[in-house]
Description:
- This protein is mainly beta and 424 residues long.
- The chain has a domain at 222-302.
- 4% of the residues lie in helices and 53% in strands.
- The chain has 2 helices and 25 strands.
- A 13-stranded antiparallel beta sheet has the order 1-2-3-4-7-8-9-10-17-18-21-22-25, with no helix packed on it. A two-stranded antiparallel sheet has the order 5-6. Strands 11-16 form a two-stranded antiparallel ribbon.
Amino acid sequence: MAVFGEGYFDATDSLKLTLGLRYTDDKKEVLRVPTFLFTPNALIADPLAGVPVAGADNDNAGDGTFNVQFEEVTGRVGFDWTPDFSFSEDTLIYGFYSKGYKGGGINPPQPAGNANAFPQFFDPEFVNAFEVGTKNTLLEGALQLNATGFLYDYEGYQISQIVNRTAANFNVDAEIRGLELETRFAPFGGLELSANLGILDAQIKDTFGVDVFDRTNGRADLITIKDPGSFANCVVSAQGYTAVLGAIQAGVLAPGSTGGLCSGAFAGQEAAFGVGNVTYVDSTGTTQTIGGLTPFDGEAKDLDGNALPGTPETTFSLAADYYWDNIGNGDFELRAHADYYVQSESFARVWNTTGDRLESWDNINLSLRLTNVEDNYFVEVFGKNVMEEDVITGLYTTDDSSGLFRNAFLNEPGTFGITFGKSW
């Protein structure tokens, strides 16, 4: 539920001030239906009904549902100035500050056998957005020049990650700043050119996270182990793992006893095994000290300054259209179109490792359309990605329990065809 409105005040004939406010009330409810993988489960009368959590309040699935509510007041303030410059037909200069909000929510129910695989709830996302820009019409309308600069300061930016075969949401802080330049030029009748340039700097701020591909953070004193119960991975000290292996070799423990390390079967028995403590950095950036036989998720890496996924530093596009009208006694119009797009390299994950790198890529599209302006039908011959470049434009990674495989997203392949259409 939301209530919003804007007010405008003409300070002068050329200066308009804007003030907008919005109140938002978000309420969300999700049934708790845990997932199971090779895990025996008591029969549930209705497998689609929510499963209560014993001892929990009703907001935390005491009644079989998770419930959250968020209330926020946001808004924007800014100005539009239309000065009368001698060098342009029309000029707009504007500046705005906006406070944005996206409600938090509820992650999927925790997997059976791993009750704390991820936070059950995630926080709202907030952004302080600053934007200044100008739009200009020049050369008696033949040239359009636009420029925009922006700064987006995010608190609780929402990202997702696959954990125990489900997608969970997490919050990080981030800052995005950039510049966009747009131009359109019609030098003479029939020809229209356009170009766009984007420059972007999108960084994560003050955030730590455990990389599922490198849970030990390269440390030789830690080791990653598969949990045979939940099929996820955990980390223990290499000293503790070696001690359990030695006990197995000596006949003190049964073969396969290392499978109990991730479930905490040996936690608290460090003295008996002659194992010391281990220190690591958790996902909040806090240094923790625990026993060397106590399992944990892994050592978190400092992500401060890393690029947000899918944010190339530079994008550029160029397009050209040429029109022939009055063809066939004025009944037809012919348009030839070509466009080119290129973007610099980016990253698929917040950890920005070599394996996360997405190479720069470009694309060319062509088309030729003949339109009957009298009867409103057309025929178009087109080619998309005419250079037939195969490009990985994105990746996402599953979790340990499903093998840490990656799904890749590709650009549209080289496609050529013909289209017929009519409008009424």
